[in-house]
Automatic annotation (TrEMBL), chain B:
Species classification: Bacteria, Pseudomonadati, Pseudomonadota, Alphaproteobacteria, Sphingomonadales
Domain Methylamine/Aralkylamine dehydrogenase light chain C-terminal: from-to ranges: 67-175
Protein's organism: Novosphingobium nitrogenifigens DSM 19370
Annotated signal sequence range: none
Matches recorded under InterPro entries: Amine_DH_Ltc, MADH/AADH_L_sf, MADH/AADH_Ltc_C_dom, TAT_signal
Function description: Methylamine dehydrogenase carries out the oxidation of methylamine. Electrons are passed from methylamine dehydrogenase to amicyanin.
Family of this protein: Belongs to the aromatic amine dehydrogenase light chain family.
Name of the protein: Methylamine dehydrogenase (amicyanin)
Length: 384, 182
């Protein structure tokens, strides 16, 4: 009888012995924070979110994390603009809202977001309901004056640029810009724009944000046959543009007004073209700190192919005016970015939403983040 | 607003007819004659519902205006960028109910494979309702950078409507492209 009781007791105790301790209770209402200093493997992917453009967003992405690359989202509504500043610890978005979502009173505003919490910390309401809405160009919203000011493009379709004092939280001036578009920061305090007559126009701003002087260089762009993509790559103070047919032209924007870098050159040719290699995509050119250009190319180049997306990246040395490598991509890619790592990685945002990471030195495919961070990734921002 | 619309419409047609680019575009159009017979861009293709059923064809019934208006290959769409209104409750030249057609827009020159003429197409956006989400199509023949607003399809042209919220794009014939040298 005692033996039977012991057996019963052991049988009853056995499951309890085999079962581990229960999971600890967890605190509620936790919200993750980003690191105080974003790792250099972080980039931001701009998702226009075609199926609800009202709900555009910026995805903070760790390109080194294959299983949890999406680190957080920032709203960027209605073809919004975006700026990033490690120096300020801020993200700025330039957006448009309606009081009844799709209708009602229009409000344009710049929102200032904290880079650690992704929470809004300030807002600048923009008068006039004129913020330019486009699919999607980074040079409609740019810093100047050592990141104290932001410049924002307007289009009604009259064109102008608003000068915004970020810390004072106000628009301090508006520069009329008839016939010109895009904002390329130039010198300490000013910008240049490309114009419909083929010229480049530079404005120097005074301490109040007013135009102190301006300069024009004519015939820098042949828009019918050699139109430049609107988004250049920067190496130091030089902006390198590439045309729809693969002509590379630099503009020195380090001084108060733009200067043409002498010696435009062609990207050349390569095998496998049908009918020819041309740049293609929405963010087709980028640069690393070693001074190499990366150009997104399609082998199916022809009139109208310039936004199809590319399947290879040509690495180009603009000093030697020579291609130094070709990086094959895993699929049709709309935008190429580079990380801030000491040896940067190339980040390709594909048409199908996939983000792929490549080694800029060997050209090898490193990892895929899958289609896990954005519905319609068009731009990959390097965060500086 | 009607007066403004009419003014804008006249302006669009006038710009289209007087544009110095039109002969180039007509040439480009001629150069791509038959483009409608070729499959279009991977971007446009990728925009569909992966694995989902396609839209049933919608045609004009007029042999002089051939093609499926729910397809990105339809000849009028040579410089369109957006959701096709034919798939959204509207048509190739009318906006869906509940939206407003923006009176200002961008234009393209497309060759009609049936008569081999180059037509000026006005891609008026429909506005005031959120993205249609059906039949996304992006073609860029004759598209040029934003320095030429009238030939750039990346602007949100709903800025001409009461609400700039974009729903879909039409492709309205506004005239024949004249053949003049540059």
């Amino acid at each position: 009888m005692r033996l039977f009781a012991l057996a019963l007791a052991l049988a009853a105790a056995a499951p309890a012995c085999a079962q581990p301790a229960p999971l600890a209770e967890e605190p509620l209402l936790q919200v993750a924070r980003l690191p105080d200093v974003w790792p250099k493997s972080f980039v931001v992917v701009h998702d226009i979110n075609f199926n609800s453009i009202l709900d555009g967003r910026l995805a903070v992405v760790d390109t080194a994390s294959p299983n949890q690359p999406l680190k957080g989202l920032v709203r960027d509504s209605q073809m919004g603009g975006a700026l990033f500043s490690r120096q300020r610890g801020e993200i700025l978005t330039a957006e448009t809202f309606y009081s009844r979502l799709t209708r009602g009173e229009r409000t344009d505003a710049v929102t200032i977001w904290d880079m650690k919490t992704l929470q809004p910390k300030g807002e600048i309401v923009l008068p006039g309901g004129k913020r330019q809405q486009s699919v999607i160009y980074p040079h409609l919203f740019q810093f100047t004056n050592h990141q104290k000011w932001a410049l924002l493009a307007n289009f009604t379709p009259a064109q102008s640029v608003s000068v915004i004092d970020i810390d004072a939280r106000k628009v301090i001036n508006e520069i009329d810009l008839p016939g010109c578009s895009q904002i390329y920061p130039t010198g300490e305090r000013g910008f240049s724009s490309l114009c419909a007559d083929g010229s480049i126009f530079s404005v120097v701003l005074d301490a109040q944000g007013k135009a102190a002087s301006s300069a024009t260089i004519r015939n820098v762009q042949e828009i019918d046959h050699q139109a430049y993509f609107s988004t250049p790559a920067y190496i130091g103070g030089t902006a390198w543009f590439v045309s729809q047919r693969g002509l590379v032209q630099g503009f020195d924007l380090s001084g108060p007004v733009a200067k043409v870098v002498p010696g435009a050159f062609s990207l050349g040719t390569a095998p496998g073209a049908d009918p020819e290699w041309r740049p293609s995509g929405y963010q087709v050119i980028n640069a690393d700190t070693a001074g190499r250009l990366y150009v997104l190319m399609t082998p199916h180049g022809k009139e109208g192919s310039h936004k199809d997306g590319g399947t290879a990246v040509w690495v180009v040395d603009p000093v030697r005016k020579a291609r130094v490598a070709i990086i094959p991509l895993k699929g049709p890619t709309m935008g190429i970015g580079l990380t801030e790592e000491d040896v940067p990685h190339l980040v390709g945002a594909q048409v199908d939403g996939t983000i792929n990471v490549y080694d800029t030195q060997s050209g090898a495919f490193v990892r895929s983040l899958g289609a896990t961070v954005a519905f319609n990734p068009f731009l990959v921002y390097t965060v500086r | 607003m009607i007066g403004f619309d009419k003014l804008a419409e006249r302006l669009t047609r006038s710009v289209a007819r007087q544009s110095s680019r039109r002969s180039l575009l007509a040439l480009l159009g001629a150069g791509i004659t038959g483009a409608a017979a070729f499959p279009v861009l991977p971007v446009a293709r990728a925009a569909g519902h992966a694995g989902g059923p396609a839209h049933q064809p919608v045609t004009s019934g007029n042999p002089q205006d051939p093609g499926d208006r729910t397809s990105c290959d339809y000849w009028r769409y040579c410089a369109i960028d957006g959701f096709l209104c034919t798939c959204c409750g509207g048509s190739v030249n009318a906006c869906p109910p509940g939206t407003e057609m923006s009176p200002i827009t961008w234009i393209g020159t497309c060759t009609n494979p049936a008569d081999n003429r180059a037509y000026i197409i006005s891609y008026n956006d429909c506005c005031g309702v959120s993205s249609c989400g059906q039949c996304l199509c992006n073609r860029n023949e004759g598209d040029r950078p934003q320095v030429r607003p009238q030939s750039n399809n990346d602007y949100n042209w709903c800025i001409g409507a009461q609400s700039s919220v974009y729903n879909c794009s039409t492709a309205v014939i506004v005239g024949l492209a004249l053949d003049k040298p540059l």
